[in-house]
Specification:
alpha+beta, Rossmann fold, Immunoglobulin-like, five-stranded antiparallel beta sheet, 8 helices, 22% helix
């Protein structure tokens, strides 16, 4: 019996040591709940996270030992905020500290509901969004689960960030998120249908404040430092009940909802398990050479190439795109050109390259690739190098554009030589001179 217990303990320890997560940000996840008993409602979702190698820690917003940053260091890599109704977090944790956590590279998955407290409201405001009025939920009298009329059944994605399409409808019951549309780094992932509206349990006696596609159900944000945030107005979409619930829309019937597949994919995106780009290498040099020069001379022919890899589910693979651009900048871009993807020779990355002529302008230039496409992590690669003018012995002796000036100068020179020769070697006729002298003498005597 002792041997079996010891073997089990060693096995568990080995699994803990060698457990590997696919997240590039780390595997430490803190789950903050309103109440400890709420943990049972999300068992399937939490189990899927553990199977992917995450180390989950659970706490409540009222826990006196609650901490996310200590000695200016993040204690966790990711946060799951399932405590929307709490108005006060212990240890003065507020929206400002959550923003600091994001600035340090952390990722957040948060869920609100129809009774959202001030902490989550303040945090959403920082992200350029807000929840609808208290007690207001989203309804759609045309697109909903037939067995539960108050529950929306969403079949299409607004933006294909984490997955391409939904295999089954996503069940949603919760409040509406209203986006200010002023944050260029935020995009909706799920929105309401044309007939959706937000209202409370009372009779609708006036036009709702938010309707149709203006109702955001799941909102995403990717910060400048590539931290990722997912916001939703429903905690119930993560529950076991909604994951296992059958769905019926008109004549279509599904044994299970698409909630598990959807929340799995959005959590993978949030925790940086997919859609992550990195620059493997970049280089530039003169055509025909291999080493980076100390400087370029105007009108030099140069070669630039950059190697990019994409990370998905634990695997680095070639990244395919047709819109990666190189800019040669001195205050403003002098050249902006699209890089061409080269034949793939490395199974883990792809190379983009271009041959071009450097600008006919001397100065200090920045060679920059700044690629920002929503859903993918931003990449920015730059190098600063000088472009010199031509040396005195590198200028061309004659230019085709100067032919008229050359002709004028040489014609003047030839004319001057001819006139000089005529002036030097021309002699007057002597007989004509005598006649002219006699004629002038006669005129004087007369």
């Amino acid at each position: 019996m002792k041997t079996l217990f010891l073997f089990t303990l060693i096995l568990q320890l080995a699994c803990f040591i060698f457990a590997k997560t696919n997240s590039l940000s780390g595997n430490r996840v803190l789950v903050i709940l309103d109440k400890e008993e709420d943990k049972k409602e999300y068992s399937i979702f939490f189990k899927s996270l553990k199977e992917r190698g995450f180390d989950l820690s659970y706490t409540t917003a009222s826990n006196e030992k609650l901490e996310i940053i200590k000695y200016e260091e993040s204690l966790y890599d990711h946060l799951i905020l399932f405590a929307p109704e709490t108005d006060y977090y212990e240890n003065d944790i507020n929206a400002k500290q959550f923003i600091e956590f994001i600035d340090k590279g952390g990722n957040i998955l948060l869920a609100a509901n129809e009774n959202t407290g001030t902490i989550i409201q303040d945090l959403l405001y920082e992200f350029g969004a807000k929840v609808d009025e208290p007690k207001f939920t989203v309804f759609d009298n045309f697109v909903h689960n037939s067995t539960t009329p108050n529950v929306l059944a969403i079949e299409e994605l607004e933006n294909k960030i984490s997955l391409d399409k939904l295999e089954a409808p996503v069940l949603y019951y919760g409040t509406a998120i209203k986006s200010s549309n002023k944050n260029p780094y935020a995009k909706p992932l799920l929105v309401g249908g044309p007939a959706a509206y937000s209202w409370d349990d009372t009779v609708v006696n006036k036009a709702p404040l938010v309707t149709g596609n203006n109702i955001v159900l799941v909102h995403t944000l990717q910060a400048i430092n590539n931290s990722r945030i997912v916001m939703t107005g429903s905690t119930k979409m993560f529950t076991d009940k909604y994951i296992n619930s059958p769905v019926k829309i008109n004549d279509k019937t599904y044994k299970k909802s698409g909630n598990l597949d959807f929340i799995t994919n959005i959590s993978k995106w949030t925790f940086q398990e997919k859609k992550v780009l990195k620059v493997v290498s970049s280089k530039h040099h003169k055509v025909g050479e291999t080493e980076r020069p100390e400087y370029y001379t105007i009108k030099n022919n140069m070669h630039y190439e950059i190697e990019i890899a994409e990370y998905n589910d634990g695997v680095w693979q070639p990244f395919n795109a047709t819109d990666i651009q190189l800019e040669l900048i001195m205050l403003d871009p002098y050249i902006r050109v699209t890089l061409k993807q080269q034949p793939i020779t490395n199974p883990n990355s792809s190379t983009y390259a271009i041959d071009l002529m450097v600008p006919d302008h001397c100065g200090v230039f920045t060679f920059k690739v700044d690629y920002r496409r929503y859903g993918l992590s931003w990449i920015k690669e730059s190098d600063v190098i000088a472009i010199h003018p031509l040396h005195y012995n590198e200028f061309p002796r004659y230019l085709i554009q100067g032919l008229p000036y050359y002709f004028g100068a040489f014609s003047m020179l030839v004319g001057f030589i001819i006139i000089s020769i005529l002036a030097l070697y021309h002699e007057d006729d002597s007989s004509n001179n005598k006649v002219n002298k006699e004629a002038s003498t006669k005129k004087k005597t007369n």
